């Protein structure tokens, strides 16, 4: 039973199509130069409309870039409000907000090189490359910069531009190109990689491009983060493979794997690290700032270089997030990495990239659920706050009021208006929006996967903000304080290199990047990367055996062969030392030892420490890993399941599969508008979703005029507000949940549905050989209340009082049943509180669970 959202949604949903058409025609004549018209080809928007959106985005890009070139270049940025060039803060070396990325190296130019390719502007691309050739021979610059920022923005920009300049298959190769962009990248890479010369084993967060990391004040070298340590592997990997110099990839990869090996028993990595001691400084983790690109690069490295170990890391780390961090709305919340306790109840602007990453991983459902939260933020603020507190409740409201919040409530002693402002102030924890790309990025990825016109409409709304509020005399100015709407006097390089690039790509279905021959992986700074054996390797390393050097001089000779310029000596000597000291180590992979694996180790005479017991987490080299792989999943089976021609798939979360968005509509409309969970965020977090006064008069994007009239043709549907209670429960130990065996039931080749089956197991159900080490969310089925799926709970045949909603990271669909093996129940029940009824229902603490059943063994 679906209920329609009350009020305006319901009325609009029932508008007669002829009225819509007349309305559209009127609009056509009055205000819109280009209006909506449906076309199946491009997810609903007409070609004309998309072209208009593209042109408008393009002209925004050129406005930003040309302003930079006219007023900013050769400095790093341009101040969008005053048109003054913007560069490092020379007076305050601790001003990392500026100095981390602005290295006095024309940052904006390097970061935007490949954007010209994306826009199809070959001339512009060549012109800027020539400008770089004329201006930069190396990065011999006395500037302390952050290694991560310079890697993703400058090194990444150079590598992508080099790929386009050199690879004839992509249509942007430059005649007589001699690889100078890669040489520049190599020069920069050699300076950046010195940050790894840190006894603690993690790279220094910052380095001096001319003198190396020791020239940076110690106070700036302490605080490191998981993303900063691990997210160099894509750029460094590509640099190594294109130059035939392995050191960059070896060191960054080894560091990544070491970092991963220090995860907690729950499979989670904390995100703040002391670079001096390589110790986590607190245990909080999440998916936003400080850890975001750890997840991103695990997955992207595995795709770019077809690396199974990194794919395993992605899957294991994501599985841990699904189990412990994802809440019932779909937010990946901040938690304690060691005990999974809920930590801070905020999400940040950087975390908005995560839905896009989930699309790349093939998990559309969780991608969209998380995306809706960021979408509501955009509706509310016309921006994404740097940090948004979704608990808002605790502060102004709950401190003064003990009853649950309702939209028209006002706080004691305050008017309704004052209440809204107070709640808004509480929710916006960090108040700036520097035009970050992450929300646009996820909008783009979701559109690519679904072709739902809703995402184009979101993009259009963002574009409109850029054309109006964000537009500045010399580029674009973000928001300094969302609460009052003041402007920020800065245009970071990612505005052009990422935000507008993703926006343009959203509107450009035919872009080369969307064709088979143009496929690429976007770096975390949106630089397109690809790698295959047809790419020319430039042999920067030139097969020169690493000289056994202890003194100055030998590397200089090597350097001379590569560069016409005199070598920046200090860097080079250190580089050689690094090469000697940090020689290659094999990749170690973490595994949890089982009895079967231990037996295998004995059988193959592999030596191991005497205190090694099953259940322990150990790190094994690739050889041992391969040897143990067949023993990693225990083989389970069940007679009844087999007899029904069903099989068991251990990948119950579907992490190795790609979800496909079904487009089963005959007339183009937005399916998203019919997704009943879309509106849950409004219900659940209404206390934290108040617009600032200056942004009150805007209409929510999804019901904004002509778009809704055309694409909401099937009406909006929403579940009514859930009034049952959810609670979390644990059977066994949290430490064990990562390794619990759970299976997805799958139809075998001879499967025939049997409606009269005595045990009604269906494909898609879950099967558990043992009921142990499970993290679960239950719903209490109180009669008369509205349940998770919008239905009124009735007193049923069996009078079940609980329903399982989530088990070890897996959200159950309404009809899914979890089957538990009777053999286990019969022989073991270590906690004594689990039972079953004659009808085959499971009971926990005497309460009947509606969707956990017993399957005979
Ligand atoms: C970008 O430089 C990159 O996307 C990075 O990974 C994190 N954030 C900024 C933009 O917000």
UniProtKB/TrEMBL annotation:
Residues annotated to bind Ca(2+): 524
Entries under Pfam families matching the protein: Glyco_hydro_47
EC number in record: 3.2.1.-
GO cellular component: a single term: membrane
Keywords, sorted A to Z: Calcium, Endoplasmic reticulum, Glycoprotein, Glycosidase, Hydrolase, Metal-binding
MF (Gene Ontology): calcium ion binding; carbohydrate binding; mannosyl-oligosaccharide 1,2-alpha-mannosidase activity
Domain of life: Eukaryota
Active-site residue list: 149, 292, 386, 438
Single Gene Ontology BP annotation: positive regulation of endoplasmic reticulum unfolded protein response
Cofactors, names only: Ca(2+)
Family: Belongs to the glycosyl hydrolase 47 family.
Protein known as: alpha-1,2-Mannosidase
Species in which this protein is naturally found: Ogataea parapolymorpha (strain ATCC 26012 / BCRC 20466 / JCM 22074 / NRRL Y-7560 / DL-1) (Yeast)
């Amino acid at each position: 039973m679906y209920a329609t959202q009350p009020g305006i949604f319901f009325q609009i949903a029932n508008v007669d199509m002829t009225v819509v058409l007349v309305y559209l025609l009127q609009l056509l004549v009055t205000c819109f130069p280009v209006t909506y018209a449906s076309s199946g080809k491009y997810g609903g928007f007409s070609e004309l409309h998309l072209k208009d959106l593209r042109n408008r985005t393009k002209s925004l890009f050129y406005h930003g870039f040309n302003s930079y070139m006219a007023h900013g270049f050769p400095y790093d940025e341009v101040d969008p409000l005053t048109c003054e060039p913007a560069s490092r803060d020379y007076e305050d070396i601790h001003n990392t907000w500026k100095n981390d990325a602005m290295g006095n190296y024309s940052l904006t130019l390097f970061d935007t090189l490949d954007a010209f390719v994306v826009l199809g502007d070959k001339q512009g691309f060549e012109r800027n490359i020539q400008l770089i050739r004329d201006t930069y021979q190396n990065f011999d610059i006395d500037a302390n910069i952050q290694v991560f920022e310079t890697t993703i923005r400058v090194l990444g920009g150079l590598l992508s531009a080099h790929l386009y300049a050199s690879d004839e298959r992509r249509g942007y190769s430059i005649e007589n190109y001699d690889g100078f962009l890669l040489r520049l990248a190599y020069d920069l890479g050699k300076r950046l990689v010195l940050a790894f010369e840190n006894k603690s084993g993690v790279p220094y967060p910052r380095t001096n491009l001319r003198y190396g990391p020791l020239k940076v004040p110690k106070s700036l070298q302490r605080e490191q983060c998981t993303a900063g340590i691990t997210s160099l592997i894509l750029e460094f990997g590509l640099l190594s493979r294109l130059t035939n110099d392995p050191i960059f990839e070896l060191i960054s990869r080894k560091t990544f794997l070491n970092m991963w090996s220090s995860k907690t028993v729950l499979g989670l990595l904390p995100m703040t690290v002391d670079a001096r001691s390589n110790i986590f400084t607190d245990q909080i983790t999440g998916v936003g700032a400080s850890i975001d690109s750890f997840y991103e690069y695990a997955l992207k490295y595995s795709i770019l270089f077809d690396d199974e170990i990194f794919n395993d890391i992605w899957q294991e780390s994501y599985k841990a997030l699904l189990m412990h961090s994802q809440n019932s709305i779909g937010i990946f919340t901040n938690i304690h990495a060691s005990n999974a306790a809920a930590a801070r109840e905020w999400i940040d602007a950087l975390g908005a990239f995560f839905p896009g990453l989930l699309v790349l991983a093939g998990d559309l459902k969780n991608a969209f659920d998380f995306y809706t939260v960021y979408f509501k933020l955009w509706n509310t603020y016309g921006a994404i706050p740097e940090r948004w507190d979704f608990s808002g409740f605790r502060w102004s409201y709950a401190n003064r009021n003990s009853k649950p919040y309702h939209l028209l409530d006002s706080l004691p002693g305050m008017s309704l208006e004052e209440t809204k402002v107070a709640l808004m102030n509480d929710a916006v924890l960090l108040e700036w929006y520097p035009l970050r790309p992450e929300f646009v990025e996820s909008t783009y990825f979701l559109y690519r996967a679904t072709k739902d016109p809703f995402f184009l409409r979101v993009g259009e709304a963002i574009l409109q903000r850029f054309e109006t509020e964000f537009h500045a005399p010399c580029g674009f100015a973000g928001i300094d304080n969302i609460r009052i709407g003041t402007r920020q006097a800065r245009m970071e390089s990612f505005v052009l290199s990422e935000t507008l690039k993703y926006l343009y790509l959203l509107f450009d279905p035919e872009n080369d990047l969307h064709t088979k021959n143009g496929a690429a992986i976007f770096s975390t700074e949106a630089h397109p990367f690809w790698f295959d054996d047809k790419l020319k390797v430039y042999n920067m390393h030139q097969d020169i055996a690493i000289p056994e050097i202890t003194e100055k001089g030998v590397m200089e000779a090597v350097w001379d062969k590569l560069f016409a310029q005199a070598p920046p000596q200090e860097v080079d000597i250190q580089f050689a030392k690094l090469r000697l000291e940090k020689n290659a180590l094999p990749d170690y992979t973490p595994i949890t030892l089982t009895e079967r694996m231990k037996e295998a180790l004995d059988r193959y005479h592999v030596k191991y420490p005497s205190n090694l017991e099953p259940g322990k987490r150990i790190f094994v080299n690739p050889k041992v890993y391969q040897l143990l792989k067949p023993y990693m999943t225990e083989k389970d089976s069940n007679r009844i399941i087999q007899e029904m021609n069903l099989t068991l798939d251990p990948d119950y979360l579907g992490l190795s599969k790609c979800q496909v968005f079904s487009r089963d509509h005959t007339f183009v409309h937005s399916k998203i508008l019919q997704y009943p969970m879309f509106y849950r965020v409004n219900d659940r977090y209404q206390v934290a979703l108040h617009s600032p006064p200056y942004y009150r008069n805007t209409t929510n994007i999804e019901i904004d005029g002509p778009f809704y009239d055309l694409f909401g043709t099937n009406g909006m549907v929403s579940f009514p507000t859930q009034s049952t209670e959810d609670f979390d429960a644990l059977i066994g130990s949290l430490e064990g949940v990562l390794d619990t065996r759970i299976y997805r039931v799958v139809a075998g080749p001879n499967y025939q549905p049997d409606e009269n089956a005595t045990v009604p197991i269906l494909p898609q159900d879950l099967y558990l050989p043992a009921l142990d080490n499970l993290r679960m969310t239950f719903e209490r089925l109180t009669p008369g209340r509205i349940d998770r799926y919008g239905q009124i709970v009735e007193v049923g045949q069996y009078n079940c009082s609980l329903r399982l909603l989530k088990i070890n990271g897996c959200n159950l669909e309404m009809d899914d049943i979890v089957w538990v093996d009777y053999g286990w129940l019969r022989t073991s029940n270590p906690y004594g509180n689990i039972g079953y009824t004659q009808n085959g229902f499971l009971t926990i603490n005497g309460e009947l669970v509606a969707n956990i059943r017993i399957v005979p063994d």
